[in-house]
Amino acid sequence: ARMGRTLVELFYDVVSPYSWLGFEVLCRYQHIWNIDLRFRPAFLGGIMQATGNKPPAMLPKRAEYMLKDIKRMAKYYQVPVQISEDDFQRVLGTSNLGAMRFITALDMTQPRYLEPLSREFWIRFWSQHEDISQTENILAIARQAGLSSELAQKLLEMISSPAVKNRLRETTEEAIKYGAFGMPAVVAHFKGEPHLFFGSDRLELLGSFIGE
Asked: Fewest CB atoms within 10 A around its CB: which of 60, 130, 165, 188?
């Protein structure tokens, strides 16, 4: 972290709409608050499995609330999440492992593109309802985020490498070690201690906690 700045790690997965909301809010505040924001692409499925958590939509009453909640938050934060009941099945039926490995490969090679690439994955999945598990869609997303076709090809080749698989697994395990059970998981390193804030609706609390 830069001198006197609080390191804030954002563990996220592009399959999570609340992660998108939290990501955009933290992106906006990263230059206003005295924080060093670090993007940590992780695998939500791994966190769910390790902690025995289940997708919120599995509980009908919670699913009903979530539809309204995400619509309200999207409007309030001006993030174009489009959600309907069909999305619950869509999320369960889409493999996001390739996408998160692609983002992880980028993190290992050109991390400065993490913000635009991650955002573009959310836009495709949550605004345009495209299948982000398809290679041609991943390449289109990379192009839109400003990556050269050479870099995109290289990242695609890296997806199946042990280095990338291990890195994604390690990042996911790190989130669990901090106490994460879902996403977004935001960890502020304050006065020598890590502090976990779960969800996109705890960011004012995070700000207050670090003296902002």
From this structure: 60
